[in-house]
Amino acid sequence: MKHNFLTLLALIGLLFITSCSSDDDGPQEPQVITIDGATVAPDLGGANMGNQVFIDLSTNTTTTINRTSWDLGFSSAQDRVVINGSILMMAAELSATDINAVSSSNTEVQSIQPQAEVGNFNPANMAYVDAPNGSLSGTAIATISATDASNKVYLLNLGYEVGTEEPDTGSSNYKGEARGWKKIRILKNGNDYTLQYADLDDTTFESVTISKNNDYNFTFFSFNTESIVNVEPQKDQWDLCYTIFTNEAVFGGTSYGAYAYADYILNNIKTDAKAYMIDEATESITYEEFTIADVIEADFTTDQRSIGSSWRNGGGPGTSPSLKDDIFYVVNDANGNYYKLQFLALTNAEGVRGYPQFQYELLEESN
Predict the structure, then answer these.
(1) What is the 3-state secondary structure (H, E, C) of 204-215?
(2) Contact 150, 96 (CB under 8 A)
(3) Residue pLDDT, tens place only, 224-272
(4) Residue 29: band (very low, low, confident or very high) from pLDDT cuts 50, 70, 90
(5) 242 with 53: CB under 8 angstroms?
(6) Parallel, antiparallel, or unpaired: how do β-strands 81-83 and 181-189 relate?
(7) Sheet holding 218-222: strands in order across?
(8) Reduced to 3 DSSP states, what percent helix, strand and coil does the chain have, rounded to the nearest 5?
(9) For 193-199, which contacts have Cβ atoms below 8 Å and span 24 or more sequence positions?
(10) Rounded-to-integer distance, Cα 143 and Cα 294, Å
(11) Across 205-321, where does the E strand assignment appear?
(12) Which of the four pLDDT bands, split at 50, 70 and 90, describes residue 32?
């Protein structure tokens, strides 16, 4: 009995010491260690490039999702909605405000459908895609108004499934079967969104509330699952995204409209992750020599295409795309850290696309 009593006193003392220590020190934040660098090989899914890959440099973590797993992204920062450019989606505003009144027999719909196609070399189709620079002020879907009557119905080209046939070595096949069309209307619901959606010839629609989440840039919705889905990591936990990308094709100063680009890399400008390119020959400095003292702040831009496809040669008839080995990049990540980054591979050892590799090194950690 005496032994049990002493044991009980010892336990009470231990709890008292632990409690006092906790009160003195206060709550402990988990320590985040910023890594010095790494070599990364994102899993794009091979030559069909079925994946989007989000990369956080400070922790060397990657998040991989199928490109067709989402359709719409509802902004947490503004009353704006983006479409999935990685599967070549397009959105066209109609004159109607009654979603049930819109069908494939509408003259307006029929006139828009041939134009709302990525890669038709018509500069007018840029009106149906989100601004390639990543600015939310240039989304294909207008700002969602608090006045319901101002929110029009949109015709959606749902783009394409991921390709399934293996292309020739060195080529990519990211474009599969067409996914068809939908009609949508989006309303404000307090600080949230109400999404109305239906197939083009349906006479009734489904409705879902989409709530903003300030931990993320967007809340994503999928028509396949008719539900909210996880896509991007939290907004300050990714810096770069490998993806298929709908960009504006400009040659010789002339726009040829919206066009799909493979092996594309976006930087997370929504959370101020920025980048710029260094040409070793032009600037007379190598990746190995470059230090934090060489960073030029004015060279960073607010364009999410700061890396884009500039890390590779485009190829052409009879010539496969190839890696540029005389350039590298400076990245100021979403946490304020500075890195230098250099691409090492565009293909695997057999020359198959969709197997990139890059290395990066910490220049300076955020204070």
Answers:
(1) CCEEEEECCCCC
(2) no
(3) 999 999 999 999 999 999 999 999 999 999 999 999 999 999 999 999 9
(4) very low
(5) yes
(6) unpaired
(7) 81-83, 72-75, 218-222, 227-229
(8) 20, 35, 45
(9) 193/74, 193/79, 193/81, 193/144, 195/72, 195/74, 195/221, 196/99, 197/223, 198/99, 198/100
(10) 41
(11) 206-210, 218-222, 227-229, 240-251, 254-267, 274-279, 312-313
(12) low
The token pair at 219 is 């809340």
Tens-place pLDDT, residues 3-27: 333 333 333 343 333 333 333 444 4
- CA 245 from centre of chain: 9
Give the DSSP H/E element, type plus range, for residue 22: helix 2-25
Position 168 pLDDT exceeds 50? yes
With a cut of 70, say whether residue 286 has pLDDT above it.
yes
CA distance 365 to 36: 9
170: CB partners within 8 A, 6+ apart: 315, 320, 321, 347, 351, 352, 353
In angstroms, rounded to a whole number, what is the distance separating the alpha carbons of residues 88 and 125? 12
> Would you list the domain boundaries of the chain?
37-65+236-364, 70-229
Query: What is the residue-wise DSSP string for 149-166?
Result: GG--EEEEE--BPPP-S-
For the chain, percent of residues with pLDDT exceeding 90: 87
- pLDDT, tens digit (0-9, with 9 covering 90-100), for 79-91: 999 999 999 999 9
